[in-house]
Amino acid sequence: MNQATLHQLKVFEAAARHSSFTRAAEELFLTQPTVSMQIKQLTKSVGLPLFEQVGKRLYLTEAGRELFATCRQIFDNIAQFEMKVADLKGLKQGQLRLAVITTAKYFIPRLLGRFCELYPGIDISLQVTNHEQILERMTQNLDDLYIMSQIPENMDITCQPFLENPLIVFAPINHPLSREKNIPIQRLAEEPFIMREPGSGTRRAVQSLFDEQEVKVKVKLELGSNEAIKQAIVGGLGISVLSRHTLLLDAAEFSILDVQYFPIKRDWYMVYPSGKQLSIVARAYYDYLLAAAKTIVEQNATYKYSTVEAIPG
What we know:
By secondary structure, the protein is an alpha/beta fold. The chain is built from nine helices and twelve strands. The strands form three sheets. The chain has a five-stranded mixed sheet with strand order 4-3-5-12-6. The longest helix has 27 residues, at 62-88. Residues 301-313 have low confidence and may be disordered.
C-alpha cells in the first residue's frame, strides 16, 4: 500500500460507511466518477478487491472490512493528534461525537449549549436514538461518549452515573387518581396504558416492575417517542410511565400519580467501551457534564411529588 494516499482512504471510509459511492460523493463534495476512480486506484494499491456488488447493494470484502477498521484507527489517531496540538496551544478544538438515549434530549442539548459557549472551537455531532441502536453504535465504536440510563449487561464498558433519572406515572391533569395518595400498583391494571416501543430502556424497566408485582396492564397504544406518548396522555387516551425529565418544558399539562413502588429509581450514565482512550474533547465534556449535572439537581430541588407544577421549566 505504498501508493495509497490519505485522500483515497477518506474516500474509501466514506463509501464503506454509507455502502454507497453516491452518498460518499455527496458527503465529500466530489463527483461519483471521482469517487470511483479513487477507489479503483486504492484497490490496485491494496492488490485485492475492497467492494463487491450483489444485486444493487454494495458490500465490503474481507480485505475491505480490514481496511475500513484500519481507516477508523488512522482517522481517530489523526483527530487525537490535532486535538492534542490544540490543547498544547491552550485551545479546545475538534469534534465531539455523542449518542444519547431518546429521553436525554430533554436536557443534554441545554447542557451542550453552555459547553459550546465555553469551547466555541468544538463541533458537536449528536445522535438521538433508542437503547438498542445505542448498543449497536457502541459495538461499532461510532461515538466518543454514550448517554444512557440502562447499562448493558454483556458488554465490557466504563460507566459513570451523573444524574438521577426517576420514572414516574403520568396522567392527564384532571385524572380521577391525581389527588389520591399511595395508590396500589395493581390499580394501574384498570387504566388504559400507553407503552414505549419494544427495545426502549424505559419499557424494559417498567415491564420488569410490573412482572415483579404480577401486574398486567391493558396496553392500548405502543408509541415510539416520549412526545407522542405525552400528546396521547393529554388527549385522554391513557396513562404512562416516563422519565421525570420529559416534563421540564410542559409540566402544567400533566398530573403525576402517587403510585406504590414509584418512582422507579434510575440514573443517567456516561458510558464508553472499556479500553477506549477518550479524546481531549471527550474528556473535557465528561468533566463538564459531571459538574453541570449539579445544576439540574438544584433546579429540581423544589420538586414535590403530587403534581408537576413545582418543576421549573
